[in-house]
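Q: For a teaching session next week I want to show students how multiple molecules come together into a single three-dimensional assembly. I've collected the sequence lines for a complex. Could you give me the predicted structure tokens for the whole thing so I can convert them for display?
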Amino acid sequence: MTMLGDRQQLAYIASQAADARVNVELETEGMTLNIGPQHPATHGTLRIIARLDGEQVVWAEPSCGYMHRGYEKLAEVRTFPQVTALVNRIDWLGSFANEVPFILAAEELMGIEAPPRAQWIRTILFELSRIANVSLFLGDLGVQLGAITPVFFAFRDREYVLNLIEGATGGRFHPNFDRIGGLKDDLPAGFIDETRVVMRKMRKFCDEIEGLLFGNEIFEARTRGIGVIPRDLALQYGLSGANLRGSGVDWDLRRDQKLPMAWDKVDWKVWTHPDGDSYARCWIRLQEVRESTLIVEKLLDSLPSGPVMAKVPRIIKVPEGEAWVSTENPLGEMGYYVVSKGELGPFRVKIRSASFNNISIVPWLLKGVYVPDIITILASLYFILGDIDR
Amino acid sequence: MAKVPGLLKGLGVTLGTMVETITKGANTVQYPHEKETPPIRSRGVIALHEGNCTSCMLCARSCPDWCIYIEGHKELAPPRRAGGKPRQVNKLDRFDIDYALCMYCGICVEVCPFDALFWSPEYEYSEPRIADLLHDKAKLGEWMETVPEAPELEAGAEKKSKK
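A: Of course. Below is the structure for the complete assembly, covering every listed component.
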């Protein structure tokens, strides 16, 4: 059978399975429920249109674009250093991670590579932004399911990580620390010792969240078996990050591709979970925060000395060419396709953000579920609204 | 040993946190009465050292949202040595930063070739009227007093950090 035939058949089976979940025996009047676009609990705007039959969703669709800021177009009229300040604001919870693929793409075009110390510090800050991002997810998850305590714990402990990022880069949320050819500056004194303390705190935070949520009977009842994404479907919808690993696909760009970063210099584990339900996705993220703290500690042990900036001209002109670089960001695969015509700024930038592809499965996933489970599923998919619309 | 029910385990975690808060104190501070000092590198407000500025417009041109307004004119200054020709110097008439537009990226501070702009970690300059967020060169000059020394670098760093 051809590849296309395979796909069509699988899509057909998937839609049949989703239809079978809808209860057709009880005939009730249909109702359209708009979730969003504005909601006080969300930081951003996304509207989900759900057509209900009683308590069940028969059709749902995410309607995005309410927060579209046109970064791809804005990047065309800005120089390369200015674009870095812009892309900070795509996924605002892990903003340092947004800069890295763009800078790597520009470096690839220019044919330069950052010095080892800069690669190490980049990776450390990348993982710190992942910890800050995902730890907020772990707290937010509780709120979505009706538990208020975890979010206070998350905000308390995320602040330590943000203080680290601010101490090193100058910005809590928008570091703008990456430069073509290296980093703006070296780490301030005391950063390493402080980071070790904070990493221990974050592991304690993970234990607390595990004690609060992951052993809890109510939490398990709300998430186990809810929003199951089969392995093949996850691959076909182009999911990435913890959503894909939660469906049992062993795929992590940090390990699988060769980049001038320091992930391959230390040993760490890619966590996967075979279930593919909401619980699996949340559990993967919890383990990833733990793993990230270990990665940071190992990288601090082997931090090389030397300069943090390669030799680059003062006015940066990127030579003509095209480059695609993607990295494993807190939310999944994030990539930049940069086309340069040899001028001060990029000619065209295509941004592949993880959340936009991750919510493409929402129409399939929400079909047939009950209304309270919508929130569980959306929370466990974990998207940042700025990352969807960018 | 029987498995501890998850609810009790969760209550144990919150109880532990409560004891910690009572014994060690809360993590939050009561803001107007107590203040946390931001890190040295923190990007709070931009200070202008007017004497160094040559109104070269590099910062205004490299600003991603064009929130720096500069006007200047050329003036003749007395010669350095006796008998020399009068020098031509750039005189700064206007240097405004609109903090309502500024996105605190720090590109202007970085591109300045004459070290006229500096970051200060001060953050308390909110205004009831948005037009008051436009800081002129006198106000930007006042921030110079709050600019800290650059922090020491971590072991293994190569060169001294500037700014």
